[in-house]
Design brief:
Layout: E1 15-19, H1 23-29, H2 31-47, H3 54-82, E2 85-89, E3 92-97, E4 103-108, E5 114-118, H4 121-126, E6 128-134, E7 140-148, H5 150-169, H6 197-212, H7 218-230
Antiparallel strand pairs: 1-2, 2-3, 3-4, 5-6, 6-7
Length: 232
């Protein structure tokens, strides 16, 4: 059966660690219903020595009421404990509580700055502790009391945060280089057309006129003359 917390996961989100409060937390919370249960049991034993009568009947009803109330109370406490889900995913920390009315809270790993773990002697012996998750402003955004496997929970949370930050810091892959389209080579210039003697004579006369007027230098005239003579 799929748990409620699993329905809160987004696409691609994976659970790295799942836990809840330590079982000792239920004993502390259930001390009053346990006392009521034990008191009802003691009263039941004492009532066996009473003579039949109205007093014994009243005591019997009290014993019955004590058993029913204590058992319902204990059932609620343990069912609530079993409904807890404290999860670390590759993106966030999720806390889900409640039997019918569910309450869920999550903290994004990238917003978590640190976590303060407190363990007394009993916590170190039985592997539980109090964990406060802090933001960059050193403000506790979530608190876990008597968290089962608290050191492992903190270590895994920081590991997942480090992996997430490493993923964000990786450089984006460069786009593939596209082939550069080179322009086609220019067609070779056609060889100069051959000229007859009359054409060359007229062209030389024109060049000489340009030289005499100073439009071209004598060196340019000689170069052009050589080119024209080569076309005969």
């Amino acid at each position: 059966m799929t748990r409620y917390a699993d329905s809160l996961l987004s696409e691609g989100e994976e659970v790295a660690l799942r836990t809840r409060q330590h079982p000792l937390a239920t004993i502390i919370e259930a001390r009053w219903p346990w006392l009521l249960f034990i008191g009802s049991f003691v009263l039941l034993i004492l009532s066996q020595g009473m003579a039949d009568g109205q007093l014994r009947t009243v005591v019997g009803y009290l014993v019955l009421a004590g058993f029913v109330i204590s058992l319902l109370w204990l059932g609620k406490i343990y069912w609530s404990w079993l409904s807890q889900d404290y999860m670390i995913t590759n993106r966030r920390v999720i806390k889900v509580e409640g039997i019918i009315n569910k309450r869920s809270a999550d903290s994004s790993l990238e917003k978590i700055n640190d976590a303060v773990l407190t363990q007394d002697l009993w916590g170190r012996l039985f592997n539980y502790g109090d964990l406060d998750i802090l933001t960059a402003a050193d403000v506790a955004i979530d608190q876990y009391r008597m968290l089962n496997k608290a050191p492992l929970f903190k270590r895994e949370m920081l590991n997942q945060k480090h992996d997430l930050e490493g993923e964000f810091s990786r450089p984006l892959p460069a786009p593939p280089l596209r082939g550069v389209t080179m322009p086609p080579p220019a067609a070779p210039a056609p060889p100069p057309r051959e000229m007859n003697a009359d054409e060359v004579t007229r062209a030389l006369a024109g060049l000489a006129d340009l030289r005499d007027r100073g439009a071209i230098s004598p060196e340019e005239f000689e170069a052009k003359k050589a080119q024209l003579l080569a076309r005969l």
